[in-house]
Write a structure and sequence with these properties.
- The protein has about 260 residues and is an alpha/beta fold.
- The protein has one domain: NAD(P)-binding Rossmann-like Domain (Rossmann fold, 3-Layer(aba) Sandwich).
- The protein has 8 helices and 7 strands.
- A 7-stranded parallel sheet has the order 3-2-1-4-5-6-7, sandwiched between helices.
- Strand 1, helix 1 and strand 2 form a beta-alpha-beta unit.
- Helix 1 packs across helix 8.
- The termini are far apart.
């Protein structure tokens, strides 16, 4: 029996990268998985693959930055799958722009996707979790701890995620809902490729961090390694951990 047998998990941004790896691992561990993603075709493809492997899964096409639909979508998941036990807030966006050049619209889009959507999804999911307890996992970033030029909106949003996590952990504890976050470092995902982080397409970027000892483990991380951390936080073994953040960064943030 898997570690998530009998549970229903929602994974936002579950059609690619960290979200897809998390959906795959959760399904292998026995969970029914609901994938929420603005890329409907990729979400449906991911679900088809899960079903071929014998898992129960469903796809919902939604742009979570458009907050008006969030509560309805979460309620639809609960109605179709019977309950909600785990929420992985993972969907994110990134605008590589200096603060002087960034438009208000770009700033707002990042905050809406990376922070406001997390709040709205957590609020909607918690209504269901109050019936039996649950786990909310927010994917943050090492940008909440350290940052770099042209990342102002992203860093601000991820700092907000960390504080939101702590606040939700306090407020939802009486309902037996634990809330934790994960702060990944450089992870090989489609979003990191777009932003010039992936070591397979822009080796000089990662090489700079590796050669100077910025990443002590000498490599970028894999989506599956973040999924493994999420599985721990979603599992029964983690019932007494709340308000915590797991930094999964190959040692990036422990070096000077």
């Amino acid at each position: 029996m898997g570690r998530l047998a009998g549970k229903v998990a929602i994974v936002t941004g579950g059609a690619s990268g960290i979200g897809r790896a998390t959906a795959n691992l959760f399904s292998r561990e026995g969970a029914q998985v609901a994938i929420l993603d603005r890329n409907g075709a990729a979400a449906r493809e991911t679900v088809e693959n899960l079903r071929r492997a014998g898992a129960e899964a469903g796809a919902w096409e939604v742009d979570l930055a458009e907050g008006a639909v969030t509560e309805t979508i979460i309620a639809n998941v609960a109605a179709e799958m019977g309950r909600i036990d785990v929420l992985v807030n993972n969907a994110a966006t990134y605008v590589l722009r200096s603060f002087a050049q960034m438009t208000r619209e770009e700033w707002q889009k990042v905050l809406d996707t990376n922070l406001t959507a997390y709040f709205l999804c957590a609020r909607a999911a918690a209504k269901e979790m109050r019936k039996h307890g649950g786990s909310i996992i927010n994917i943050s970033s090492v940008h909440r701890i350290i940052s770099e030029p042209n990342s102002g909106a992203y860093a601000a949003s991820k700092g907000g995620v960390s504080q939101l996590t702590r606040n939700l952990a306090i407020e939802l504890a009486p309902d037996n809902i634990v809330v934790n976050s994960i702060s990944p470092g450089f992870i090989r995902t489609p979003m990191s490729v777009v932003n010039g982080v992936d070591e397979t397409t822009t080796p000089n970027f990662i090489d700079t961090y590796v050669k100077t000892g910025r990443i002590p483990l000498r490599r970028a991380g894999l989506p599956e390694e973040i999924a493994a951390a999420a599985l721990f936080l979603a599992s029964r073994e983690c019932g007494y951990l709340t308000g915590a953040d797991l930094v999964v960064d190959g040692g990036l943030t422990i070096t000077l």
